[in-house]
Amino acid sequence: MKVLIVEDDPAIAANLYDYLEGRGFEVDVADTGTSGLRFALADAWDAILLDLTLPGMDGLTLCRKLRSEARRDTPVLMLTAKDTLDDKLEGFGHGADDYLVKPFSLKEVGARLDALIKRYRGQVARQEIFCAGVRLDLATLAVERNGRAIRLKPKCLHLLRILMQSPNRVLGRAELEAQLWGEELPDSDTLRAHIYTLRKALSQPGEAELIETVHGLGYRLVAEDRDAA
């Protein structure tokens, strides 16, 4: 997942960067409002961490331009030292999705980001994911491909869900390991073994391989765009 940090305090930006990168996020940083808006429009982000007090352009203006002019609905988590109700209402009025007052816990930042991204992707209410002929029922954890039931152990189920939630996107080894095992990282070959097991379970002889290894980068679930739902 890709997160943009727009923060002019080097220490805060560095702490956020290190924490999110350690959780497997792909992270970039802008230290002015002007560069932050340029970064926000130049790429597709899963979420934006946005400070309010920025040189060049304040965070409220940046958020308003992102919503009303650029028509982008990327989730925005505002970070600020301003903690009154009026301050928060102003932030929401300019298009923020959530609001966190400094000083904050990095774990709370991570939890709020996870919740924002899940809502943005429609994963809170959605009961199943379907792509590339594979259907995953999020309530029962039943898996099938083209009507054929597939039995998977918990870690492979979790891995399949991560890949299906971002079809065609290359997910790096660090990102996958962080989502699967958190801070207790496994041996170097464990992820590869789970990928192998999942591949074998998904594809019978004559069926196309769904999980592609992108050498030096990571793995992705290959699906035509119209298949992903």
Protein model, in words:
The model is unreliable at 225-229 (pLDDT under 50). 40% of the residues lie in helices and 21% in strands. The protein folds into 2 domains: 2-121, Response regulator (Rossmann fold), CATH 3.40.50; 128-221, Winged helix-like DNA-binding domain superfamily/Winged helix DNA-binding domain (Arc Repressor Mutant, subunit A), CATH 1.10.10.10. It contains 8 helices and 12 strands. It has 229 residues and is of the alpha/beta class. Strands 2-1-3-4-5 form a 5-stranded parallel beta sheet, sandwiched between helices. The protein starts with a strand and ends in an 8-residue tail after the last strand. The protein has helices at 10-22, 33-42, 59-69, 85-93, 106-120, 154-165, 173-181, 190-202; strands spanning 2-6, 26-30, 47-51, 76-80, 98-101, 128-131, 134-137, 143-145, 148-150, 171-172, 211-214, 218-221.
